[in-house]
Amino acid sequence: MVELSTSDPYYVTLALWLAKTGILVLVSGVLAWLGVRAMDALTPLHERERIGESPIATAWFIAGFFILIGLVIHGGATAPGVVGGPVLENLIDLRRLGLVAASFVVSLLLLLALFLVLDKVTPKISFIRIEDDPQAVGVYVFGYLVFFGLILHAALNSPL
After folding, report:
1. What is the DSSP letter of 52?
2. What is the spatial distance between Cα 156 and Cα 32, in angstroms, rounded to a whole number?
3. What are the tens digits of pLDDT across the range 21-62?
4. Are 79 and 157 in contact (CB under 8 A)?
5. Nearest Cα to Cα of residue 92 among 13, 20, 9
6. For 92-139, how does the pLDDT look when each residue is reduced to its tens digit (9 = 90+)?
7. What is the pTM of this model?
8. Considering only Cβ atoms within 10 Å of each terminal Cβ, which end of the chain, N or C, has fewer?
9. Residue 152: closest CA among 7, 29, 14
10. By the 8 A CB rule, do 90 and 16 touch?
């Protein structure tokens, strides 16, 4: 029977898979952090100042963070990888990382564009009023943390 790839021991395959997952999670975590910073800069809300004023807002923030990281870890763990190929290609797939970064940036830009459209078509809803209540700010931040988790997860699992 012809082998399709090298027959590495199980522990080598497992170590490479764990390392690949870890690298993808770290890269995705940095992208999510950049996305949060971009949202902070591009919206008129002062999220960080308000969230800490309420335990419930803090809980929403932490829940959103857990979902974000869970989606990123799941995406990294289930992302396609090279098994039995060169070690460097297995650990750092530049095409996959480029896809993740490009998908993230495009999704962020689409979110911002659609947010501006939503703001224009709903003039009687004042989005800035969210800032009046720390709990509302917590739910708002929760929403965009989950959004970042979903787009990163989708990018990690996109076929090339």
Report:
1. T
2. 13
3. 888 888 888 888 888 788 777 776 667 777 888 899 999 989
4. yes
5. 20
6. 777 778 888 888 889 888 988 888 898 889 988 888 788 888 898 899
7. 0.77
8. N
9. 29
10. yes
Q: How far apart are CA 9 and CA 32, in angstroms?
A: 35
How far is residue 106 CA from its own chain's centroid?
A: 13
Q: What is the DSSP letter of 131?
A: G
Angle value at C-alpha 150, between 98 and 115, nearest 5 degrees: 95
Tokens of 34: 């950049």
The Cα 8–Cα 15 span in angstroms is 11
Mark residue 84 as left, alpha or beta (left: phi above 0; alpha: psi -120 to 50; beta: remaining).
left
Cα separation of the two ends of the chain: 29
Per the structure block, which two tokens stand in for 22?
């870890």
| Residue ranges in the chain assigned as alpha helix (H) | 10-42, 47-51, 55-78, 87-91, 94-121, 134-156
